[in-house]
Amino acid sequence: MKFYIAIFVFLAFSSGVSADVPDCPGPFNPPNNISTQVVYPVSDSLVTFPTGYNCVYQINVPPGWSSHLVVTVFSSSNTTSAPIVQIIDFNQKVENYTSYRWFQKYYFIAPGGKIKLSTQSANVTFQFSVQWYSSITVYQPTFLNVSASDSQPSMVNVSYVNCRVTAETRVSVITMPLDDNWLTRDQADNLRSVLIFDGPNENSTCLGTAYQLWNSNRQFVSTGKTLTIVQLQPLPYVSRSQMLIQDFENTKEIGQYRGVGSLGDRPIVMDASKQAAAFSTYSDAGSSSDCLLNITGTGTLNVYYGGKTDSKSNLIASYSASSNSLNLPQKIRGVVRTYVLTGGIATVQIELNSACNKLTKNVAGFITSPEYKTNLTLPYTSDSQHYYSDGPFKYTFTVQDVDLSQNKSLQISIYNKQTSGFVSVVYNSSNPPILNTVFSGVGNEMDVIYSSPNSNAKKGGFYIDFTATKTKESAAKFFGVIVICAIISSRLF
Ligand SMILES: *[C@@H]1O[C@H](CO)[C@@H](O)[C@H](O)[C@H]1NC(C)=O
Ligand SMILES: *[C@@H]1O[C@H](CO)[C@@H](O)[C@H](O)[C@H]1NC(C)=O
Ligand SMILES: *[C@@H]1O[C@H](CO)[C@@H](O)[C@H](O)[C@H]1NC(C)=O
Ligand SMILES: *[C@@H]1O[C@H](CO)[C@@H](O)[C@H](O)[C@H]1NC(C)=O
Ligand SMILES: *[C@@H]1O[C@H](CO)[C@@H](O)[C@H](O)[C@H]1NC(C)=O
Ligand SMILES: *[C@@H]1O[C@H](CO)[C@@H](O)[C@H](O)[C@H]1NC(C)=O
Ligand SMILES: *[C@@H]1O[C@H](CO)[C@@H](O)[C@H](O)[C@H]1NC(C)=O
Ligand SMILES: *[C@@H]1O[C@H](CO)[C@@H](O)[C@H](O)[C@H]1NC(C)=O
Ligand SMILES: *[C@@H]1O[C@H](CO)[C@@H](O)[C@H](O)[C@H]1NC(C)=O
Ligand SMILES: *[C@@H]1O[C@H](CO)[C@@H](O)[C@H](O)[C@H]1NC(C)=O
Ligand SMILES: *[C@@H]1O[C@H](CO)[C@@H](O)[C@H](O)[C@H]1NC(C)=O
Predict the structure, then answer these.
(1) Nearest alpha carbon, ligand 10 atom 3
(2) CATH, residue 415
(3) 356 C-alpha vs ligand 6 centroid, how far in Å?
(4) Nearest ligand, CA of residue 35?
(5) 262 in helix, strand or coil?
(6) Which of 65, 123, 317, 430 could form a disulfide bond with 76, CB atoms 3.0-4.6 angstroms apart?
(7) 42 and 65: one domain?
(8) Does 348 share its domain with 275?
(9) In sequence order, which residues have a C-beta less than 8 Å from that of residue 346 and are 6 or more positions away?
């Protein structure tokens, strides 16, 4: 790709033709032979347009057809902040270019759209191509039902998608970009090729693209019970992005709502001053987790394993953003995780699971398996969680809930580097945890392993109240592991 760009830059500066400035042509219509790609201004060389050049290129798309545009822009200077090129789609939605793009892909359906070139004070190298297709859907249709009683949203892979969704009330959809560097051009192009229709097929009103949906920081919601998600031709890139689909009954109170794909260190700003605000993250089969690092601001942040539910059957934690004793970080498991803020404005920081594994400060929270409270059957034989620290910590646990049926077991081990001490507790159905027993030990490492000999067994999972407190090196020498039997008067929630 770098090589390609290099060649392009070379062409832009050395062989861009500026002597013969093309006329501003009339509308572009499908050619008689639709296999033919139409290229403007010319296909075999790149043309540089002079300063002060303006033209609007109209691309017509007949009903039931689709078109694929590839646009290239390169400006001789970055002197202006006004857009050099605007892409105006079939819904009059606008994307602006202020500097340069190479081979950026767009998709238009009927009635078509426009490309607006205004070079202003720059010399602009510009070219686009259009390919028409006499259909919108190309992939085999799939069908999906969602219901207000589902606590777990449905995920639809956007690659080759032609999915008809039926809800009990109305369909809610958000885009869930998954790639770490998803904002790279390929991901944006890919999400532009996915259209969402407000009805049972592609003849319904188009609400917009998956890319516009992601940028909107809102849900798209069907007016009736059905919604259709379609990826247009040509053959898509294979994408890891997904659409997250729920019954609107569960999400109707949410205003701002988006999918958070790459869990960088970036803060997520949530404005729930007027309406609840939310974001969701996703990990295939619960294989990775979020590390909730920080919440600042005001309001209450509820964290669900799955989607937001009125019953709160899958609520896992609730934080008051203004409280300064949050005792974070906290590892968040589940497959879909939904964070819902109400009554305030807050900034939330999440990172990849590994950030929670190293203990650097006192924490108070919980440890769960990924399927806890989800009613999902996740195929695994062993779920391991590892915590470690440089200095010794005192770990304290209370097992609040655990499914030990069908030979499942839960093992908690603490390793003390100073004394080379190792302690381990294994719970199984013949040795279940005694309710409200507090287990405590000092060490530098802790493992929690939940095993099931049958990987496909339904697992209820576990929930452990957990604290880790920094201790002095000297204290660690004398600490073994103690088990305190005590009645805890209240759970965390
Ligand atoms: C249509 O265009 C394609 C590609 O340009 C070409 O291969 C094909 O021969 C053309 N068909 C006709 C009937 O001209
Ligand atoms: C315009 O800005 C982009 C990045 O913002 C830079 O890579 C590019 O070289 C600039 N172009 C010119 C001609 O200065
Ligand atoms: C695009 O540019 C126009 C003109 O500067 C501006 O009014 C509009 O808000 C911009 N749109 C987007 C989506 O950035
Ligand atoms: C645009 O191109 C013309 C002709 O090559 C040149 O004289 C002029 O300096 C260029 N302007 C800019 C802003 O690059
Ligand atoms: C969705 O629900 C309809 C009507 O209840 C039913 O006929 C259909 O089989 C369901 N489809 C799926 C994929 O569950
Ligand atoms: C969409 O409309 C076109 C033209 O009216 C029709 O030929 C086609 O069958 C319709 N598609 C569906 C899925 O109803
Ligand atoms: C999405 O579908 C493509 C093509 O079928 C597949 O290669 C890819 O692994 C899928 N992605 C996910 C996350 O399931
Ligand atoms: C959380 O954010 C606040 C405000 O930005 C900052 O003072 C604090 O250090 C942060 N805490 C963590 C654990 O990052
Ligand atoms: C859990 O899932 C099973 C199917 O695997 C279903 O029969 C049961 O009703 C579900 N329970 C709840 C509480 O949703
Ligand atoms: C549990 O283990 C015992 C002994 O290995 C075995 O006989 C039994 O079938 C197992 N039960 C299940 C449900 O896997
Ligand atoms: C539980 O663990 C003990 C000790 O490891 C073992 O002897 C016993 O067989 C286990 N019981 C079951 C049901 O797996």
Answers:
(1) 407
(2) 2.60.120.290
(3) 52
(4) 1
(5) coil
(6) 123
(7) yes
(8) yes
(9) 269, 270, 272, 295, 296, 297, 298, 299, 301, 321
* Ligand 6 atom nearest 200 alpha carbon: 13
Count of domains forming the chain:
4
* Residue given tokens 């890891």 in the structure block: 240
Check whether residue 107 and residue 151 sit in a common domain.
no
pLDDT per residue as tens digits for the range 186-209 = 677 888 999 999 999 999 999 999
* Residue type for position 407: N
Q: Point out the domain boundary residue: 356, 385, 403.
A: 356
What range defines the domain where residue 384 resides? 363-492
pLDDT tens readout for residues 337-372: 999 999 999 999 998 777 899 999 999 999 999 999
Chain-centroid distance of CA 460 in Å reads 26
Query: Which H helix or E strand runs over 61?
Result: none
Burial-class residue 348 by CB neighbours within 10 Å (0-12, 13-18, 19+).
buried
Beta strands in 232-334 (DSSP E): 242-247, 254-259, 267-272, 276-282, 290-297, 300-305, 315-320, 330-332
* 486 and 430 in a common domain: yes
Q: What's the CA gap between 176 and 159, in Å, rounded? A: 13
The region that residue 291 occupies, defined by phi over 0 for left and psi between -120 and 50 for alpha, beta otherwise, is beta
Name the closest-CA residue to atom 10, ligand 2.
Answer: 78
The pick from 140, 142, 143, 149 for probing ligand 5's pocket by mutation, whose C-beta has the most ligand atoms within 8 angstroms, reads 143
Cβ of residue 98 lying under 6 Å from some atom of ligand 2: no
Judge if the beta carbon of residue 405 lies within 6 A of ligand 10. no
Residue where a domain terminates, one of 133, 166, 195:
133
Residue 293 shares a structural domain with residue 207: no
Structure tokens belonging to residue 285 = 């089969």
Cα 13 to Cα 75, 124, 255: the distances in Å are 10, 10, 47
Q: Are residues 305 and 233 in the same domain?
A: no
Residue where the block lists tokens 């004070």 = 121
**Do 274 and 385 sit in the same domain of this protein?**
no
157 and 228, same domain (yes or no): yes
Separation between Cα atoms, residue 347 and residue 325, nearest integer Å: 16
For the stretch 49-106, pLDDT in tens is 999 999 999 999 999 999 999 999 988 877 667 889 999 999 999 999 877 777 889 9
